[in-house]
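Many introductory courses stop at the sequence. We go one step further.
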Amino acid sequence: MQLDPDEMTPVINRIKRAQGQLAGVLRLLEEGRDCEDVVTQLAAVSKALDRAGFAIVASGLQQCLVAGDGEVDSLDVKKMEKLFLSLA
């Protein structure tokens, strides 16, 4: 399945932001900064990547579950919710 590049723009931006945050984590480690600061920034990177992953999965699921008329029916929404919960 191909992901629509236009739909992925926010995901790409989020990953780029996470990349910058990760560079910050490395800098904190190299400077010998406080453990709490490092862990806080690392948690932010992890959360940003998790959200990007869920956005990618949501887009893919939507493409898979969309009916021929372009509408997602309520059963498919429940199925998507169940799949998301299985990832958590």
